[in-house]
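G., before I forget:
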Amino acid sequence: MYLQAKRLLKLALSPVLMLLSLFSAGAWAETGARWQTNMTPGITEVGHKIYDLHMWVFYICVVTGIVVFGVMFYSVFAYRKERHQEPATFHENTRVEIAWTIVPFLILLFMAVPATKTLIQIYDTDDADLDILITGYQWKWKYEYINPNGDNISFFSNLLTDGAEIANTEDKGSNYLLEVDEPVVIPVNKKVRFLVTANDVLHAWWVPALAVKRDAIPGFINEAWTKATETGVFRGQCAELCGRNHGFMPIVVNVVEEPEYEAWLGEKQAAAAEIKELMAKDFSLEELVERGKSVYTSSCAACHGANGEGGVGKAIAGSPIATGAMKDHMDRVVHGVPGTAMPAFGSQLNEVDLAAVITYQRNAFGNNMGDMLQPVDIYKFKKGQ
Amino acid sequence: MGAHHGPAKGLTRWLFTTNHKDIGTMYLWFSFAMFLLGGSFAMIIRAELFQPGLQIVQPEFFNQMTTMHGLVMVFGAIMPAFVGLANWMIPLMIGAPDMALPRMNNWSFWILPPTFLLLASTLFMDGGGPNFGWTFYAPLSTTYAPPSVTFFIFAVHAMGISSIMGSINIIATVVNMRAPGMTYMKMPMFVWTWLITAFLLVAVMPVLAGAVTMMLMDIHFGTSFFSAAGGGDPVLFQHVFWFFGHPEVYIIILPAFGVVSEVIPTFSRKPLFGYDSMVYATSSIAFLSFIVWAHHMYTVGMPIAGELFFMYATMLIAVPTAAKVFNWITTMFKGSITLETPMLFAIAKVFLFTVGGFSGLMLAIAPADFQYHDSYFVVAHFHYTMVAGAIFALSSAVYYWIPKWTGKMYNETMGKTHFWISFIGFNLTFFPQHFVGLAGMPRRIPDYNLMFADFNMMSSIGAFIYGSSQLLFLFNIVRTITHGKPVSDPKVWEGGTTLEWTVPTPAPYHTFTTPPELK
């Protein structure tokens, strides 16, 4: 009955629809089109259902609006004082008033039924083929692939857009603010369950094309799921105000064929194994500084400045920590400063990167300590606590 | 002439006054000042969003602007403006000589200026002002907040005390001081809507006070109400906040309904259609407002039963709201309509508020809200209800009653110009925000992808137009007071039927010292 009513309504509304499609022609097909005026149906069955529901309620609103505003503007036009000197005196009509209470109620039922069905489907997180733990950090996302048969693999996904583009000194690319260094990769046609949480404040993981938006709440795990039916790159953003860089923690989802996914997973596992090996390696100062520089750029520069000059965070150049005792420096980086914007990087970076970035900070920006750390020192430091 | 027959002279008149008209006037001027302050914050926001990239402000300051814009507009501009109208008009409309509790009335007002001075001063404090959004979700507003959050909490407590005292006063006045023969079902609709609003305020302002007190405890005294690490729950904050916050939006809109329910019959020269059903509809909306709060939290991870309950309850609000809109339209139907400035604003309010109601109905649909939530679609929705719904009604009210207040007529051409510029500017600002929201732009971001650039530029241009039209409004008001054409007809408007149109124009300092006789 709902479908039939919908078809009839679509027919009746076709002139309005044509007008609307002028606005949004082509915009629904691809993401990122300028002048996009409508929600994307996305690449999932749920997404299409949400889109249909959205349009259905929208059409009902348009029809109601045409009728209601039609009567209103007709009254304003036809019963102006110059045309209609003697106002009527009626001021109630119980039957009419009861009718226009019942009719909206009945219309609401036509919305509530499909809405309930879709909601039940959204909540069905059972029987997933793959679980990904998503953790919101100020201001990046961490993805951890739950592997029941071995080690999980995990990585952080940071904003890739260059600061110069944000500062308007360079031209902005088409994926401005919607690009990351490491996208999350999922296989097509598989039910993927997202376990969403946060490390510090609230965040919300939103990818319109997947029709998934879930709040990330520190201390709690929320569930959501998706089953992409198309491959491609899909972009989203953090949707819950999470502090200074709320607008700068995008999400990029790479939906690929399963073999490609397996290959990607294999690479990630190999890289994790390599880090394990590197744990035992003795690095030279040059190696550490080189590796530390790239870690610094992705993890520290946003607050401490590209040249250690400081910003939101204190200056690294000439800082008493970076030029002081090694133990204090390790403590600051590994544990952060609670209650401030300085996070505990011990849980965000691996031992190799921690050793590298600390060594880099002590030997860059005019800091010339000449000392260095090995991954095993970090490991011992963490265990010693 | 005895001292008690006229106002005192000088500053002490305003400082010590217990006269409902003086206090109403102060509330209205104060709220207008806050409207301009909150508006200038909005101008900064729109200037930054005029183009992609960071141009004018840094993200830290941008977040302070969105937060302060919301707080100042809701608590400093709209609410005190309606309290000002209530002070001026409720005694005049029910035939009472003054408010029931005049000294408390004085205090309710005088709490506000220092409170907002304190709130505004946080912008100059170390670490900046509140930057966590006007909804101040924990833990961003607790563990991660700037030190000024304590002053923010104190300010919220103070404005809560002011609101509670103001609403107790309104309840006491309406219940006890109606002229003989004015039964509840004969009260003007503006008085009815304010009576219901006052009950809402008394019910929920303490809940807000509770929320900020728990924040204070978490920040300074080591409790963990909102921190999972200590056994608390960040989501608890949202439940408590929205238990206040949802009735709060009806606190803002119900008196606006009251205003248009006065203005539309006057300029249609026809009694309000369906008075009884208006009263019942308003009461139903007020009741429903208590059981829909979690529709602001559809994505928070509630169980499906909760999600469904809040969806159905929210959809139900459409029924009494629709009845009100139908009543206003039927009031105009077969009337004898003239389109003076108050009527233009009232019609636009009904029109645009209904548009906001439609998007509200869309937002009520929980599955679809997974796409709308925290996007610019929400921003568009609530500005259609708050700006067009409440501010347009306030503009309407000022033009409607200013001749009664001052004994001078405002400049009609300037008033209509103000209306049309506002109307165009408003729609240009907020209509495109529906589009960017649906296309995926989150709210509260200082910078955005190029795909959102065109509509954001339109929106900013609209905002500058709407913002500057308010200066014309200010100019028109000041000019009315200084140079307006004198009016002496008690009725002012041909279609005015309520009691305020029976006292002389301008309304003398004391009115209804003996109660009027109701026919």
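Chain A has a mean pLDDT of 89. The beta strands of chain A are 130-137, 140-145, 153-157, 184-187, 192-198, 203-207, 212-216, 222-226, 232-238, 250-256.

More on Monday.
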